[in-house]
Amino acid sequence: GQQVMQIPQYQHVQEGEDFTTYCNSSTTLSNIQWYKQRPGGHPVFLIQLVKSGEVKKQKRLTFQFGEAKKNSSLHITATQTTDVGTYFCAGAWRDSNYQLIWGAGTKLIIKP
Amino acid sequence: KAGVTQTPRYLIKTRGQQVTLSCSPISGHRSVSWYQQTPGQGLQFLFEYFSETQRNKGNFPGRFSGRQFSNSRSEMNVSTLELGDSALYLCASSLAQGVGELFFGEGSRLTVL
Predict the structure, then answer these.
(1) String of DSSP letters for B24-82
(2) Which among B14, B62, B57, B67 is positioned nearest to B35, based on CA atoms?
(3) Nearest chain A Cα to B59, which residue?
(4) What is the pLDDT of residues A14-66, one digit of tens each?
């Protein structure tokens, strides 16, 4: 079945450094969504990417969808303590009835 | 408008018992999905309901079941509980199947002793 591979599992950064997480699928996605889960919280929707090569920005967050629609990334510039949490991608395929398949998540940890 | 409401928030059961969790979606949302989240396992999809019909099902044993009512509220049931069923169970609603973002509830944290 379809899978979404997300790396890295953890990323430790100093406050002010950048953070990037990557998601890959072996087959072409219909769309991909990104969520953030704060410690002790529930996932919260960040964005959905649909078009090939799409790039969207939300303040310090930049989301990209690959040209082949098989990979996606989330980049955070100059991390802040409020960015701490786990970032998940979730991909959907038309031939899987658009059921979302989730990546394992990348936990962003700010070094003290 | 009110968000997704899950009850109970916390519960403790013993092995062999059964449990029923409830989810009230956002008003107007007709699709409800259920997920199991354990440390290190991410979000594991259980099932999705739309218009009272199960549309998608994850790879869980038959002990896990669910249903959706005509008002879009959903319940999931786990029978013959095992220690490994201890997890956070999250419900998410969306306008329709496969459409747009998911809105998650706070979750029901189940501990099986």
Answers:
(1) EPPTT--EEEEEEEETTTEEEEEEEEETTEEEEE-S--TTEEEEE-TTS-EEEEE-S--
(2) B57
(3) A1
(4) 999 999 999 999 899 999 999 999 999 999 999 999 999 999 999 999 999 99
- Within 8 A of A105 by CB-CB distance, chain B residues are 42-43
Q: Which of A31, A101, A99 shows the shortest CA–CA distance to B56?
A: A99
The burial class, CB within 10 Å (0-12 / 13-18 / 19+), for A78 is: exposed
Q: Which two tokens stand for residue B8?
A: 């109970």
CB contact under 8 A, A43 and B56: no
Q: Which residues of B touch A (CB under 8 A)?
A: 33, 42-43, 45, 48, 55-56, 90, 92, 97-107
Question: Residue B41 is encoded by which pair of tokens?
Answer: 């396992």
